[in-house]
User: Fold this.
Amino acid sequence: MTAAWGLPSEAVIGGKKHRIHGDYRDILEIFSYFSDPDLPLYLQWQIAMALFFDEPIPEEDQPEAMDYLLRFINCGNTQEPSAGHKLLDWEQDASMIVADVNKVAGQEIRALPFLHWWTFMAYFHAIGEGQLSTVVAIREKIARGKKLEDWEKAFYRENKKRVELPVRYSQAERRQRERLEKMLK
Assistant:
């Protein structure tokens, strides 16, 4: 059976099987650490590996484990995701994502004791027209400098906090900004 038709629950790293935590909530928690500007990259990876694998991975096998985690997040695809403008924030957009995924799944996904990340992403990719797609389309137009339609402008004005993505500054960056603002006063 090919990987696309299965839902992995373990990984072979360094020739040894390791159970993984593949629930969508586990992966979203990992995302929250990867988006924390106060955590250095090596610490983000250490936390991600500890959350994803059931037991510690030996240091010599960590590059292979990191690669596996990235492939798992990418639903088994080995192709690098294209770098572009950030159009989605898993935390900020959570209520819209849940509403649309629930509609596709035909049930309240948060009530499920386990929902595999790949299944969650299949539901996510099946989302059609709705508030999330509207917000993402407006973000994309703004990022590309394209003109918004009149209805999009109205939607943007009424939902500015939902449309605009937060800029996350590290503590050091926040202190520097505050220092500069004081100097400019």
